[in-house]
Amino acid sequence: MPVYNLKVNGQSHTVEADQDTPLLWVLRDHLDMVGTKFGCGIGQCGACTIHVDGSATRSCLLQVSMVEDMEITTIEGLSDDASHPVQQAWKEVDVPQCGYCQAGQMMSAAAFLSQNSNPNKSEIRDAMSGNICRCASYNRIEKAVEVAASKLS
């Protein structure tokens, strides 16, 4: 079985996995980083969103063989102490209901705000539209992105 060298949350990891294993399962099953959630397995829901070289990416669609030598950030690596502005905003606004999608929501928001730290409501809605929340917390998610943006500016 092939061996891959991954850089996840600033740390190097060596994993043995089939080349077509989705990165989602490597993160969860091999590296015990279970904050990244399985939702649909086809890249439609956003629950498995992580950052790869700073871009929001669906980890269920990436094969482990595709990400060697790339910077991978999971929700566990967004900050060590929940001090990232997105994490602070999520707590302040009390966004989650069930919480299942929230790691993916926060990772999408963080990547978006790194590109646009002063978005309007329409831009926020467009940026977050790829993440599904079964509890329909969309208004609170949008508010939290606004709060996080204000913390960044």
TrEMBL record:
Pfam families with a match to the protein in the record: Fer2, Fer2_2
Positions in coiled-coil regions: none
SUPFAM superfamilies: 2Fe-2S ferredoxin-like, CO dehydrogenase ISP C-domain like
Family matches, as InterPro entries: 2Fe-2S-bd, 2Fe-2S-bd_dom_sf, 2Fe-2S_ferredoxin-like_sf, 2Fe-2S_ferredoxin-type, 2Fe2S_fd_BS, Beta-grasp_dom_sf, Diverse_Oxidoreductases
CDD domains with a match to the protein in the record: fer2
Gene3D superfamilies (alphabetical): 3.10.20.30, [2Fe-2S]-binding domain (1.10.150.120)
Gene Ontology terms, MF aspect: 2 iron, 2 sulfur cluster binding; metal ion binding; oxidoreductase activity
Ranges that cross the membrane: none
Keywords: 2Fe-2S, Iron, Iron-sulfur, Metal-binding, Oxidoreductase
Residues of the 2Fe-2S ferredoxin-type domain: 2-78
Record-given protein name: (2Fe-2S)-binding protein
